[in-house]
Each structure stands twice: as C-alpha cells, then as structure tokens.
UniProtKB/TrEMBL annotation:
PROSITE patterns: CYTC. The cytochrome bc1 complex is composed of a cytochrome b (QcrB), the Rieske iron-sulfur protein (QcrA) and a diheme cytochrome c (QcrC) subunit. Binds 2 heme c groups covalently per subunit. This is Cytochrome bc1 complex cytochrome c subunit. Residues 46-125, 144-222 form the Cytochrome c domain. Keywords: Cell membrane, Electron transport, Heme, Iron, Membrane, Metal-binding, Repeat, Respiratory chain, Signal, Translocase, Transmembrane, Transmembrane helix, Transport. Heme c 1 binds at residues 59, 62-63. It comes from the Bacteria. It catalyses: a quinol + 2 Fe(III)-[cytochrome c](out) = a quinone + 2 Fe(II)-[cytochrome c](out) + 2 H(+)(out). InterPro entries: bc1_cytC-su, Cyt_c-like_dom, Cyt_c-like_dom_sf, Cytochrome_c_Oxidase_Subunit. Heme c 2 binds at residues 157, 160-161. The chain crosses the membrane at residues 241-260.
Amino acid sequence: MRSGTSRRRHRAARPLALAFALVLMGALYAALSPATQVAADTGMSAQVAEGKALFQVTCSSCHGLNGEGTSQGPSLVGVGAAAVEFQMATNRMPMAKPGAQAPRKVVQYTAQEINNIAEYVQTLGPGPAIPKSEQYDYSGLSDDDIARGGELFRTNCSACHQAAGNGGALPNGKYAPALQGVEPLHIYEAIRTGPQQMPVFSAGAIPDEDVASIIGYLKGMEEQPSAGFSLGGLGPVTEGFAAWVLGIGGLALVATWIASRGARAK
C-alpha cells in the first residue's frame, strides 16, 4: 500500500512542479520585462492626451472635437501624423480665414506642440507617420542619383511647380507653391500626404530613395547661380514669348525708324 501511494504522489508531483515553474517564470517576466514598456506607454499616452487637449482648443472648430470633420474642414481620420506636421510646421494650419488655398506663414506653435497634436491625430486612424531623417537624407547622393531625381521631378512635378520649382498658377485661385527654401522633411511629407491640390505619391509609386533624389535635385538647383535672365525659370514657353515680343517688336521699331528716315530724306 505504501509503495502504491508513493507512486501516485510521484506521478502527481510532475505536473504540479511544471505548473509551479510556469507561474514562477510568468511572475518574473511580469516583474522585469514590461517595466520599460509600461513607462513608454505612459509617456506616449501623456503626449497623446496633451495633443488631444490642444487639438480641441486649436483645431476642433473646423475639424470637430474628435477629428471627424465639419462643414468648415475635412475629417482627419486616417490622414496620419505626417500631414499634421506638414500643415502646422509651415503654419498653413490653422487657417486664419477660409480661402481657396492655405498659404505658408510664420509658425506659431512649438515643435513639441505640433508633435503632440500629430501623435493624437495618428491615433484616429492609420496614416503616414512623421518620417525619420534617413528616409529623405540626400547628403550621400551621387551625380547619377541627382540626375535621376531631376528626371522624376520633371515627369511628376514640373507640370504644376514648373521646371525650376518656382511654382505656378492653378485653376480657381489656387497655385502650386515655389519649392525654394523648403525643408527636405516638408518636401517628403508633401509627396507622401498630398496637401491641398497635390496628388499623393505612395512608397510604391515613388520609393524613399527616389524621393531623396528629387530633394537632392531641388537643393542642387538652389545652389546654382542664375546666368542671364531667368524669366522666372518657367521654361521654353516664357522664353519663346519673350523672343517673339522683344525680337519682332525690336524689328518693327527698326523698320519704323528706317521708314521715317527715308520719308525725311525725300
């Protein structure tokens, strides 16, 4: 009888020991590993809470208390943090008054306030996040990369922004802004989020390395000195127009002068 009881106890001891070991490991994991995650979550939650409070004071009159949109402004669900950072860091938003297009203005908010609002809007729905600097870094590009950036710019962007990035008029009082002096971060964000009249170019359409090439091309043009009359850098249309006006106008003046001299001679 004793030997049978000891066998039964021995068989029951194994699952009990396994269960005890699992409980012990779980307790150790809960005590050590999640501590950093909890701290990070707490920090992010505080940032989102601050962003929401500022959003409701600054943005809700047009976009709704929860970013759902109103008759004065579109919904922000799914636009992502990058769109918010672009609009607020260039102070296109908040708009002082409704208009055909939001112009760039002097920034009124700190970088931290903008990031807080951006992180809050990111929680409303998935969208493009604020990029890391390596995603648009153009410092290590080769001449071939920059040349490819020029080709991409002329193919996808010059119809609105003109060949030299000087901007241009669009229908209904809208316009494509000039690109001189624009931060690389904001060029990247504009390409990915499509502000106002601009189309959205996803990473599948224009990968990050091509975006960096476009930025490198634009920054390279800024560094090049202008030779002669640039005529706004608008390309062959303005050059042809100037040639016709000045050339034919000059010839007409010369012809008139010659005719008047001939009449006087008689």
